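This entry is listed below:
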Amino acid sequence: QLQLVESGGDLVQPGGSLRLSCAASATSGYTPDYYIIGWFRQAPGKEREGVSCISSAGSIEYADSVKGRFTISRDNANNTVYLQMNSLKPEDTALYYCAAGITTVRNMCVHKMGVPYWGQGTQVTVSS
C-alpha cells in the first residue's frame, strides 16, 4: 500500500506561481521509488485529467495545456514529487491530486491506466 499526501495548494493571482508537493510513503509492498507518480486535476463539471507524471528514472509526461509552464521533479531520497507551476491561468483552477501506479508515464498521464493510489487533493485557485 502506498500513501500520498499533497500540499501547497492556495489562491494565487493570474501569472503567479505555486509549488505543489506530494509525499509518498509505503505501508507495505513496494517502496515509493518503484512507482510512477503524477499529478492530476479536476475542475468542477470537468473530467479528471493528467497534468504531469514522472518515473524514478526521470521519464516525464506533460499535458499539452501545461507544457512550458509547469515542471515536475522528484526527490527519490525523500520520496517526494513536486509540481512547480508558473504563469498560472484561471483555467488552471482545479483540485490537484497526486497519484501513483506501477505502469508507464504515458499510460498513467494520457490514458489514466494503472493508477490505484490517490491522495486527497489540494485546491489551486487562480483568480484576481
About this structure: The mean pLDDT is 95. The chain has one helix and eleven strands.
